[in-house]
Amino acid sequence: MRKAEVLIIDDEPSIAEALVLILNDQGYETVSAKTGRDGIAEAARRNFDVTVTDLRLPDMSGLDVLNAIRRGDEANRVIVMTAHGTPEMISELKEHGAVEVLKKPFLPSDIIDLIENILKERSVMA
Hints:
- It is globular and about 35 Å long.
- It is an alpha/beta fold.
- The mean pLDDT is 93.
- It has helices at residues 13-25, 36-45, 62-72, 87-95, 108-125; strands at residues 5-9, 29-33, 50-54, 77-82, 98-103.
- Helices cover 48% and strands 21% of the residues.
- A 5-stranded parallel β-sheet has the order 2-1-3-4-5, with helices on both faces.
């Protein structure tokens, strides 16, 4: 069985590294990027099952990343992480196709459960 592939886009090395370790331990194949542009380029090179992106990146917003990734691959499910999400922003992100907006800080089990649920939904829909 193919490992699910997860793209992580976050400019904070401690968060990106922690997510890579957590998800690799769960059997996912992960790739990380530090900027929105690098993340979009990675997403253009291969088809990820799930992308986890921060809302605030040094070169663009998570909304811009979400729009670019969804335009290139509608099957890629995008989770946006934020410590600064307002109800209006969360609503806008979901309108643009974010599967979930995950508020920081969160537990490792939160991201694992979320990704597992997304992948289960995808397999049911396929």
